[in-house]
Amino acid sequence: MSDRYGSDVLSGDWRKPARGRAIDQPAEPGLVVEEVETGWVGAIVGVETIGGQQVVRLEDRRGTVRAFPLGPGYLLDGAPVRLVPYAAPTAPRGPARTASGSLAVAGVRAKVAAASRLFVEGTHDAELVEKVWGADLRVEGVVVEVLHGVDDLTAALREFGPTPRARAGILVDHLVAGTKESRIVADTVAHFGADRVLVVGHPYVDVWQAIRPDRVGLTAWPVIPRGQDWKAGIAAALGLPHTTAEDIGLAWKHVLSRVRSYADLEPAFSGRVEELIDFVTSPGEGAP
Q: I want to staple 67 with a disulfide (CB 3.0 to 4.6 A). Which of 40, 42, 55, 148 is the partner?
């Protein structure tokens, strides 16, 4: 016989919240959570003590930081959590590594600039390379120089004067076969020699795309319509100011701040950089 009144509402764990019970979650920097009472969503940028109370600092997509009490009242991926202090490892479980994943060399000063050079097209590209591979390059004494366009490539290399023992590695944007840029690159390599110059291109419209989109809270980089400035469109999608050149610069700083190591980059970019570093740090034998 059917129960016209349904099951006993007091049976089972009737006090259990609809979203489930909160579990302890270490407040690890970079973790994105929502503060339930205000709806504030942000990445954890630190935990500190204010007036005797521990608070967690959350930075939203616009770069605004607010502090909230550490403890219950947060959602992580829609599930309730209780934020507790994050205990960062006090010692690595093995050899220390740089942001690029290389073994860190303790007590070694940067070398005087070596003969080889790394040319990177675009200021943002160079800043990203420096952030992830800067420690490695300083140990090797390899200087990164900004190349402001492929049109400047031949002149820059003439001034540098590459040799088999003083090589030039060049990273360029979105190198596509059959374009003017690809012809300039081919002519340049043919002129100076493949034992002196290596040019590689990454597949992205802009180096911002070389950063994994989840690092800035996106599932994928938006497709920006033709005729619209790409960087401005991305800044708008991130909810950041995007009207002036200064806005775009600040938006890039926001994106770059989310990069902690090579693991935050797309392999199609990091692989190209590693290829260039191998080339310029392993000069060929023979006359200088």
A: 55
